[in-house]
């Protein structure tokens, strides 16, 4: 979820079914260390990067240099799907209360329901935690979808399928909300993994992962793998799940070359899109159009969102290259479904979509290719020298 004060809201959702599936894409992100002093065991690199993995062959990822974290113990610690988001189980307070927390790289507050709401099964009862301390400050966050208000407090938290140890973190106790908790979600809070600059009420509220790194001494890197097509937001059966590896990346989850893209500015995970292709057609827009007003990697958003001009160009290119004679207008607005003969798979009617990101060697780029299949997302990453 992106904070709605960003201009991302002026973008359109691409209403095709381009969704992450089959666990072939991972997005490990290095996180900003901000003004905090981290333990000397942590390797601080001046350039913060997003790492994208492909489904190629033969990756050797460096293992945890501190040797204290067992990444394999964190594999499959996420539940959820691309329709409703991915969440991790956490234990809050003393005695501990278990809650499911949505993993969101598009915001920076850790917030949990602290009062009842019709769409959630339970909430964090601060009065029952002997270690909860209110700071007396109020806090409010507005996302692209929904908002909440509450009070800032601190308490102990541990992650059953995360790094060993208990940490003291900032918690926003949500008291009122609007459009934030949705029917059918199985999470009760949100874990904002972006940089301190996005934290509310201000950047002095240390985000969760900064606290983890500081207090547990794990490397300042996490990786995220989200699985499954999540075709229907109403199917509760077989949640696909995924992994949030804190402290590095687990080699068993990925084979292939690793490419990094520089973070343009440390607030959201803002990256630079250099080119878009639909099938083999280069959209050939001015690359400022692709980054208008910014391009971000946001695990809390389940759709690929594009600026209006880019969206229109993508639709035009798909319409041109698709084997379907006529699309109803409503199809592109998401209000009409396209139908196929029973037993026929429509994927061959649609082209693939490739997004090119700048590489750390800034005169190179690499691409992520999204296939049209609901169950066949693939990220093919190949180097490209910019001409
Ligand atoms: C936590 O500690 C136990 C016991 O030392 C160890 O077996 C386990 O792998 C550790 N978990 C993680 C995630 O490092
Ligand atoms: C960066 O990429 C360019 C173009 O491919 C290449 O000529 C140059 O050697 C690369 N620089 C480094 C440091 O690898």
UniProtKB/TrEMBL annotation:
Keywords: Aspartyl protease, Glycoprotein, Hydrolase, Membrane, Protease, Transmembrane, Transmembrane helix. GO terms for biological process: amyloid-beta metabolic process; enteric nervous system development; melanocyte migration; membrane protein ectodomain proteolysis. Residues 86-387 form the Peptidase A1 domain. GO terms for cellular component: endosome; plasma membrane; trans-Golgi network. Its main location: membrane. It is a single-pass type I membrane protein. It holds the Pfam family Asp. PROSITE patterns: ASP_PROTEASE (PS00141), PEPTIDASE_A1 (PS51767). GO terms for molecular function: aspartic-type endopeptidase activity. Glycans are attached at residues 164, 361. InterPro entries: Aspartic_peptidase_A1, Aspartic_peptidase_AS, BACE, BACE2, PEPTIDASE_A1, Peptidase_aspartic_dom_sf. It is found in: Membrane. The active site is at 104, 298. Belongs to the peptidase A1 family. This is Beta-secretase 2. It comes from Labrus bergylta. The lineage of its organism: Eukaryota, Metazoa, Chordata, Craniata, Vertebrata.
């Amino acid at each position: 979820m992106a904070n709605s004060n960003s201009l991302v809201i002026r973008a359109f959702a691409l209403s095709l079914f381009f969704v992450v599936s089959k666990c072939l894409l991972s997005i490990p992100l290095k996180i900003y260390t901000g003004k905090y002093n981290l333990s000397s065991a942590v390797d601080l690199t001046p350039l913060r990067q997003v790492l994208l993995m492909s489904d190629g062959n033969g990756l050797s990822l460096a293992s945890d240099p501190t040797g204290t974290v067992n990444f394999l113990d964190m594999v499959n610690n996420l539940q959820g799907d691309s329709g409703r988001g991915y969440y991790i189980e956490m234990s809050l307070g003393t005695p501990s209360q278990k809650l499911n927390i949505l993993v969101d790289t598009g915001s920076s507050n850790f917030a949990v329901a602290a009062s009842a709401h019709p769409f959630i099964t339970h909430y964090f009862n601060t009065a029952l935690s002997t270690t909860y301390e209110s700071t007396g400050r109020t806090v409010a966050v507005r996302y692209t979808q929904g908002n909440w208000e509450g009070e800032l407090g601190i308490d102990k938290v541990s992650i059953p399928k995360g790094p060993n140890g208990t940490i003291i973190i900032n918690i926003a106790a949500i008291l009122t909300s609007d459009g934030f908790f949705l029917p059918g979600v199985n999470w009760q809070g949100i874990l904002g993994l972006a940089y301190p600059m996005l934290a509310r009420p201000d950047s002095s509220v240390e985000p969760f992962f900064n606290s983890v790194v500081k207090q547990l001494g794990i490397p300042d890197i996490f990786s995220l793998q989200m699985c499954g097509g999540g075709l229907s937001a109403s199917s509760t059966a077989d949640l696909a799940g995924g992994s949030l590896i804190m402290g590095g990346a687990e080699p068993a989850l990925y084979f292939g070359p690793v490419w990094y893209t520089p973070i343009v500015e440390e607030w959201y995970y803002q990256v630079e899109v250099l080119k878009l292709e639909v099938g083999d057609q280069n959209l050939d827009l001015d690359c400022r159009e692709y980054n208008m007003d910014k391009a971000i990697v946001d695990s809390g958003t389940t759709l690929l969102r594009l600026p209006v001009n880019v969206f229109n160009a993508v639709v035009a290119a798909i319409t041109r290259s698709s084997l379907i004679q006529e699309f109803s207008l409503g199809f592109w607005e998401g209000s009409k479904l396209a139908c196929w003969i029973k037993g026929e798979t429509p994927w061959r009617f649609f082209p693939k979509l490739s997004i090119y990101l700048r590489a750390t060697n800034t005169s190179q780029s690499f691409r992520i290719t999204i296939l049209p299949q609901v169950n066949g997302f693939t990220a093919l990453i190949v180097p490209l020298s910019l001409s």
